Automatic annotation (TrEMBL), chain A:
PROSITE patterns: 2FE2S_FER_1 (PS00197), 2FE2S_FER_2 (PS51085)
SUPFAM superfamilies: 2Fe-2S ferredoxin-like, CO dehydrogenase ISP C-domain like
Xref: Pfam families: Fer2, Fer2_2
Organism field: Herbiconiux oxytropis
GO molecular function: 2 iron, 2 sulfur cluster binding; metal ion binding; oxidoreductase activity
Keyword Metal-binding attributed: yes
Pathway in which this enzyme or protein is active: Alkaloid degradation; nicotine degradation
Keyword Iron-sulfur: yes
Keywords of this entry: 2Fe-2S, Iron, Iron-sulfur, Metal-binding, Oxidoreductase
Domain 2Fe-2S ferredoxin-type: 2-78
The name this protein goes by in its record: (2Fe-2S)-binding protein
UniProtKB/TrEMBL annotation, chain B:
Pfam annotation, one family: MoCoBD_1
Protein name: Xanthine dehydrogenase family protein molybdopterin-binding subunit
Residues covered by the Aldehyde oxidase/xanthine dehydrogenase a/b hammerhead domain: 17-133
Stretches assigned to coiled coil: none
SUPFAM superfamilies tied to this protein: CO dehydrogenase molybdoprotein N-domain-like (SSF54665), Molybdenum cofactor-binding domain (SSF56003)
Keywords: Molybdenum, Oxidoreductase
GO molecular function: iron ion binding; oxidoreductase activity
Length: 157, 787
């Protein structure tokens, strides 16, 4: 086991991890943040998407050790239980989900997208979410959800 | 009224927070991790398994093999009986005994302290295999002298299912050759691929002799009964809890070999044990669907009316497992000719075992295969007689006046208006006027095409002598404060039926929706039910909840009316209140309080005490007694849809892009349009995936070629298309409120619609597409062949 120190959802955190362990397993098993999900372990599905130093990564293909000294932000984002941000509310209202297994990764990708591009068009939204697969509900309502939160932030609705 | 409202899914705010509890999030104290060693060979004898090194590892608690399970008395004997056909069966072993028959077959299991340790222990297991000649597909398996997948069978045919209506041979013989077409169509293998894999956590309490299992399953009660049988425990000693499920689509209908192994390990170790499937395990061994070949012969009149149809179906069902997926092939056969009136029909299905992975249920459940074959044949007939494809469908559709209609298979279609959905989808896609658009695009160097595809989706499967026999139960109870809890035997894999059932119960009771809670997926809390499959959750689960709610409603009405000093017939129940004609009202809380607190007082005279009611529902048009009434029908409701799409084909590369996709579905009365549409979006996207991107491939020896999602490519947002939905409602005369199932609608029509559109885009070349999916390589090859 090795110790790593990281900033996790804005707070300093020390974790003892197996050097063979991926970041998603460390987040889920050691930090007990189970919002990031494992869907493929080949960086294909995006259910494990988190931010690492402000960039989205598939945390199944990042070693926990690589997060040492860096900032990780997960879907939980330090929120109080029961609190949702505007991205999450838009997904809920637009029914941009069914089973919800992919949704936390989607939410992280949308937060990151809107941090980078305040007014993304459909093409930019599509590219921003290209790494996140949804198997239940398709992408029609997910696109609606992203447009909704974008327009709310820009005061259009 | 809540029915018909676009109510947001009840779990949305939980799961969007990342706060859902999926099976891998269940962590009993001291939980160990189980991992499975799987066969790397399509077919091999197991000479010896050396477990010494694995058992010697510090963090390994248990190693299991097929022999050790056999010694513990665990084996699954054949069970169930089948109408109309008799399959060959085998004893099934959760871990292989003697030989392996497909890549990914479970061979041994290790239990260690964590996943990293368990996977390291798998590497320490030494298996000595004698590799055997294998059959990588059904055609090879049918060859004389082919290696046999099941040693005790005379050949590789598991079941043969023929049926005939009229005399198709005579009609074909009397038809002039220009009015006959013959050919072969192929539906290749796919996998449902929910993003969350399968998984189970088992915890055994030796003091109480009680096993608790959390499972990513569609059917907790069925899993409990099957596990009890496999482990020789009383049903009452097992509790199965379904936590949040990360998608299922049929892929989690129990029982799986890993369920038995994990539960057994927990009992042996007297500690909690968790098995979570990894994607590289799922893709070869989690169960596939489709993989059916159809050799057909069709005769038709000058106007495109089909006069005779024969189909020879060969289903490659892979090696047998505890899965029941092979029955999908029966449904494929039984749904021919489906929506079309053909008086002279012969269907012969052979289910062939091979050294491919086993089948497991997947949305569509075989209906998508028959839809693909039938629609391709309809298009070919239309081309042969030079009539439009929509017109030829109209010519052959069953008309609304013929229902209930007995299919050649004997199944009875309840209702339908197929021309209705076809007409509506043509409007939505812009059928009229497309020819001009196509010509303009062609002049500009682009190839656009338009196509249609029709699907028939029988739902509510009710198989005789099985745990999937076509009933479900619900309990509706009101507390002393007037709050309502609904406990259902149906479950939700994330589709939202809990929301729809709450709407149904709230309307039936006159309750406020926010005071109706729905609890599902726990064998100790919920009444016995079959869970979720065959789009049955509202037709069965909603109807049983409705029946139970009616009894509660009646009691609230009688007591409330007494409290208001009016006759029961004079009050109405609305907004969680009982309201008299004068406007005087009493809240459900006060009525419930009276029922609980004053059972001997005036308002309760002649009223049975208590406010908890359980009811079980079965549908009247399921027929399981052919010896009595000559009828056999396992599908009570028959939804249908018609799709149309516009595609652009790149002639140089064979790449197909869908420009617009429209679908008009008819699933009777819709309880929650928001969730029904979300389901249809998802089904259509899966249907498009299976049409263009997804294919489980094997080589001739049976080695799988897709072990990750990099080779089995699911559609992502870049592949997403603009989906336009339309609704039609032909209420079922046999269900409560005319509901039909919606869960499987929309997955079957995309493949034939897209094929039809691709051919239209290449119409001047005369391209024929006979094999789905239409990958760039296949489309390109078809273009070259036509040239």
């Amino acid at each position: 086991m090795i110790d790593i120190e990281l900033t996790l959802n804005g707070r300093p955190r020390r974790l003892a991890v197996d050097p063979r362990e991926s970041l998603v397993d460390a987040l889920r098993e050691r930090a007990r943040l189970t919002g990031a999900h494992v869907g493929c372990r080949t960086a294909s599905c995006g259910a494990c998407t988190v931010e690492l130093d402000g960039n989205t990564v598939k945390s199944c293909c990042v070693l926990a050790a690589e997060a040492d000294g860096r900032a990780v932000r997960t879907v939980e984002n330090g929120a109080e239980p029961g609190e949702l941000d505007d991205v999450q509310v838009a997904f809920a209202e637009a029914q941009g989900m069914q089973c919800g297994y992919c949704t936390p990764g989607m939410v992280v990708s949308v937060r990151n997208l809107l941090d980078r591009i305040a007014d993304p068009d459909d093409d930019e939204i599509t590219r921003g979410l290209a790494g996140n697969l949804c198997r239940c509900t398709g992408y029609v309502n997910i696109l609606k959800a992203v447009r909704l939160v974008r327009d709310r932030r820009l005061g259009r609705v | 009224m809540y029915i018909g409202e676009r109510v947001e899914g009840r779990n949305n705010r939980l799961v969007v927070a990342g706060a859902g509890t999926y099976v891998d999030d269940v962590r009993p104290e001291g939980c160990l991790v189980l991992a499975i060693l799987r066969s790397p060979h399509p077919h091999a004898r197991i000479r010896r398994i050396d477990v010494t090194a694995a058992e010697g590892r510090d963090d390994v608690e248990l190693v299991l093999t097929g022999e050790s399970l056999l010694a513990a008395g665990i084996a699954i004997p054949p069970s169930g009986s089948y109408a109309n056909f008799t399959p060959r069966m085998t004893v099934k072993h959760p871990l292989a005994v003697g030989k392996v028959r497909y890549v990914g077959e479970p061979v041994a299991a290790v239990v260690a302290h964590d996943l990293v340790g368990a996977r390291a222990a798998l590497d320490a297991l030494m298996v000595d295999y004698e590799v055997l000649p294998s059959v990588g597909n059904a055609l090879l398996a049918l060859e004389p002298g082919a290696p046999r997948v099941e040693d005790e069978w005379p050949d590789n045919v598991m079941v043969e299912y023929p049926f005939e209506k009229g005399d198709p041979a005579a009609v074909l013989g009397a038809t002039e050759p220009s009015r006959i077409r013959r050919g072969t169509l192929v539906c290749n293998r796919i996998a449902s691929t929910p993003l969350e894999g399968r998984g189970l956590v088992a915890d055994y309490d030796p003091h109480r002799r009680y096993l608790t299992c959390w499972a990513s399953t569609q059917s907790p009660h069925i899993l409990r009964t099957l596990l009890a049988g496999a482990l020789d425990l009383p049903d009452s000693s097992i509790r199965v809890i379904q936590p949040n499920v990360g998608g299922a689509f049929g892929g989690k209908i129990p029982m799986f070999p890993e369920d038995i192994v994990t539960a057994h390990a927990a009992i042996v170790l007297k500690r909690p044990v968790k098995w979570i499937e990894q994607r590289h395990e799922y893709l070869p061994a989690g169960g596939h669907s489709r993989d059916v070949r159809c050799d057909y012969e069709v005769a038709f009149a000058a106007d495109g009316r089909i006069t005779a149809l024969t189909t020879e179906l060969i289903a490659d069902i892979g090696a047998q497992s505890t899965f029941l997926g092979w029955l999908m092939a029966i449904v494929s056969a039984g749904c021919i000719p489906g929506s079309y009136k053909v008086d002279d029909v012969r269907v012969r299905l052979r289910c062939v075992v091979s050294n491919r992975g086993p089948w497991q249920a997947y949305r569509g459940y075989g209906k998508e295969v028959s839809a693909f074959f039938l629609e391709r044949i309809l298009d070919e007939v239309a081309d042969a007689v030079g009539r439009p494809r929509d017109e030829v469908r109209e010519r052959n559709f069953l008309t609304p006046d013929v229902f209930p209609y007995e299919q050649p298979s004997g199944w009875i279609t309840d209702s339908g208006d197929y021309s209705g959905t076809l007409a509506k989808v043509k409007d939505l896609i812009g059928w009229e006027g497309f020819a001009a658009r196509k010509a303009a695009a062609r002049a500009g160097g682009r190839r656009l095409g338009i196509g249609i595809g029709h699907e028939l989706t029988p739902e509510g499967s009710s198989r005789p002598d099985s745990l999937l026999s076509g009933t479900d139960s619900a309990t509706v109870k009101m507390s002393p404060h007037g709050d309502v809890t609904v406990l259902t035997g149906v479950t939700s894999p994330g589709t939202g039926n809990e929301t729809g059932i709450a709407q149904i119960v709230a309307d039936c009771l006159g309750a406020s929706l926010d005071r109706v809670r729905v609890v599902q997926g726990d064998t100790e809390l919920c009444p016995h039910g079959n869970g979720n499959y065959s789009s049955r959750s509202l037709t069965f689960g909603g109807s049983s909840a409705h029946l139970a709610a009616l009894v509660v409603h009646d009691k609230i009405r009688r007591v409330g009316a007494s409290m208001l000093d009016v006759a029961p017939g004079e009050v109405r129940l609305d907004g969680h209140r009982v309201i008299a004609p004068s406007g005087a009202e009493v809240g459900f809380g006060a009525v419930a309080a009276t029922i609980y607190r004053s059972p001997h007082a005036r308002h309760m005279e002649g009223v049975e005490p208590g406010l908890e009611v359980t009811r079980t529902f079965k549908m009247d048009n399921v027929h399981h007694q052919p010896e009595k009434d000559g009828r056999y029908n396992q599908y009570p409701t028959w939804s249908f849809s018609t799709a149309a799409c516009i595609v652009e084909v790149d002639e140089e590369t064979g790449v197909v892009r869908i420009e617009k996709f429209a679908l008009v579905h008819d699933s009777g009365m819709v309880v929650n349009p928001l969730l029904a549409e979300a389901q249809l979006h998802g089904a259509i996207t899966q249907g498009i995936g299976a049409s263009l991107y997804e294919e489980i491939r094997y080589d001739d020896a049976g080695l799988p070629q897709n072990l990750t999602l990099r080779e089995y490519t699911l559609p992502g947002m870049r592949e997403s298309v603009d989906i336009v939905l339309g609704h039609q409602s032909t209420p079922s005369p046999f269900t409560m409120m005319g509901m039909k199932g919606v869960g499987e609608s929309g997955i079957s029509a995309p493949a034939p619609a897209i094929a039809s559109a691709i051919e239209d885009a290449l119409s001047d070349l005369g391209v024929r597409l006979t094999e789905v999916p239409f990958t760039p390589a296949r489309v390109w090859a078809a273009i070259q062949e036509a040239r």
